[in-house]
Design goal:
137 residues, alpha/beta, five-stranded parallel β-sheet, two-stranded antiparallel ribbon, 7 helices, 7 strands, 54% helix, globular
């Protein structure tokens, strides 16, 4: 499974996004399922609604309903790790969506991600020292 961040979903949905072509091209080369988290989906829907309208967020939700990607269920046991990462990267700062993806990487045992966020995902480490590998950039 490949982790998908908000920036990837936004680029994929918006033909005017500077990363749109890269998102489409990268997606076409991936032969495994995508996975994200509820905080990322929430953030993405909010931004889609704000910038592209209701149809864009509905399209994303519809794609989830037909199995286009999976959502990792965060549990109470993950919250202490999320808090730990948000505290560690407070100088960036790290938001809930990004922290949830670090926890997801630890769960999956890899940091292969689709993201337009060049700064943060070059900085973040999962399992304290392992870097993310951004397949999109």
């Amino acid at each position: 499974m490949v982790i998908a961040d908000t920036g990837f979903w936004l680029a994929l949905a918006n033909r005017g996004d500077r990363y749109h072509a890269a998102a489409k091209k990268t997606l076409a080369t991936i032969d495994e399922p995508l996975i994200t988290t509820w905080p990322v989906l929430t953030e993405t829907c909010h931004l889609l609604l704000q910038h592209l309208g209701n149809q864009a967020q509905q399209k994303l939700i519809k794609s989830y309903s037909i199995g286009a990607f999976e959502i990792f269920d965060l549990t109470r046991k993950h919250i202490s790790d999320i808090h730990k990462y948000m505290k560690k990267y407070a100088d960036l700062p790290m938001d809930l969506a990004d922290a949830s993806l670090v926890v997801l990487a630890e769960h999956l045992g890899h940091g292969r991600i689709l993201s337009t966020d060049q700064r943060d995902f070059k900085t973040y480490r999962w399992k304290q020292r392992k870097p993310f590998k951004n397949l999109m950039l």
